[in-house]
Amino acid sequence: MTTDAQPVRVMVVDDHPMWREAVARDLAEAGFEVVATAGDGEQAIRRARATSPDVLVLDLNLPGRPGVEVCRELVGPQSGLRVLVLSASGEHSDVLEAVKSGATGYLVKSAGPQELLDAVRRTALGDPVFTPGLAGLVLGEYRRLAADPAPAADDGPRAPKLTERETEVLRLVAKGLGYKQIAERLVISHRTVQNHVQNTLGKLQLHNRVELVRYAIERGLDD
């Protein structure tokens, strides 16, 4: 599996060896480049930094450091890493915590092999991918967060000027569109959309998609 003619580099993190190796094998057979696997949180952080995968397929229940800590440690405006959580838990609290920690998507382990492959492909493109029924939950949480009063100090450092195109992309992100959908809407490449989002995160000093959507909704950009 490739994007822009380059293989998507994937790392699989799960504490169950048989499950971990089965997922890695399915991904490799589908054309993804599996650059590493890991069985605990500390190992995951070390190996991810050493191999620079495009997508981290991450379980939440890990020895040492849980998956949400791994996510917080590795995901940032400059990292370029996207995380797809693959967990046995479908609890709403786990889903929201994972997304707030920087995960792009969340899939439960009951998903079929083809659903997983498609989710990894879409995650590599920057699209938010969720097990059916969970996407609405996450969007609802975005809006709840946006309804909470924001600290007045936030408006100071977060008021740099965005370009017209960055603002346009931000509006569509706030409406819940994935990168591929935004690219099609604006007739630009998904890579260009990713670049605009990364630039916007840097300008606004934000860390992930949750904070970006909250920022946009607070300013009425989702109308």
From TrEMBL:
- What is the name of this protein? Response regulator transcription factor
Q: Record's InterPro entries?
A: CheY-like_superfamily (IPR011006), NreC/VraR/RcsB-like_REC (IPR058245), Sig_transdc_resp-reg_C-effctor (IPR016032), Sig_transdc_resp-reg_receiver (IPR001789), Tscrpt_reg_LuxR_C (IPR000792), WalR-like (IPR039420)
Q: Which residues carry this modification: 4-aspartylphosphate?
A: D59
Give all residue intervals belonging to the HTH luxR-type domain.
155-220
Q: Where is the Response regulatory domain?
A: 9-124
**Domain of life of the native organism:** Bacteria
Q: Which CDD domains match?
A: LuxR_C_like, REC_NarL-like
- Keywords attached to this entry: DNA-binding, Phosphoprotein
Question: Source organism lineage?
Answer: Bacteria, Bacillati, Actinomycetota, Actinomycetes, Kitasatosporales
A Pfam family it matches = Response_reg
